[in-house]
Amino acid sequence: xxxxxxxKDYRFDSEVEDIRGADVxxxxxxxxxxxxxxxxxxxxxxxxxxxxxxxxxxxxxxFLVPAREIMIREEGDEDYRVNLTKEQIERFPEYKExxxxxxxxxxxxxxxxxxxxxxxxxxxxxDSTRMITPExxxxxxxxxxxxxxxxxxxxxxIGQDLPRFGATSQADTMSPEVGGLVGNTQYxxxxxxxxxxxxxxxxxxxxxxxxxxRLRREREEILRRRAA
Length: 228
Known about the structure:
The chain has helices at 86-89, 103-118, 155-161, 196-200, 205-217, 219-227; strands at residues 4-6, 23-25, 31-41, 47-53, 62-66, 80-81, 181-182, 185-186. By secondary structure, it is an alpha+beta fold. The chain has one domain: SH3 type barrels (Roll), CATH 2.30.30. The strands form two sheets. Strands 1, 2, 3, 4, 5 and 6 form a six-stranded mixed sheet that branches. It starts with a strand and ends with a helix.
């Protein structure tokens, strides 16, 4: 069985609002397209990527976005946001659905996708949308630098680690004697531990989460129909 599967024309019942067809906007509020399909882990039903149909502005017509990068601004939004521009997306390798059925081809796609995602100057603190200055240990040529295995950083890993709109990292806290604001990063006194859900604010929204839960529950039926 292939590691990844997609929905194609599979439809859930009316109890679940389908995210397919929802508009997706980029970091500059420019419409990038709409969600055409999703790609999920065949073993768990975990939603890994969304497939965006650009409507024609992109030569290859469609591109992938890790599911963790899809976000809303506030609960009840009908459309989604992604922290990407058209210029960044144009660097992505062409997505071909048939690659899902072949682990070797998919692994090759992941390597090229990862290289394209890394091709940019923006870095973020984990679980935060704030740009950060790299630690000395991560700067090339630093005494404390260490090698990173590019093969380990696949779109799946990217999807798990990408920041969320409205997120605030636990690493953003500092000692009470400092407090306040430093640069563009907000710090809170040590000992103040607000609720993590409240700190993150709106994420992917209930519509997305309900869709994900139904996908997990119907995973086997989806795969059975695809194999028939």
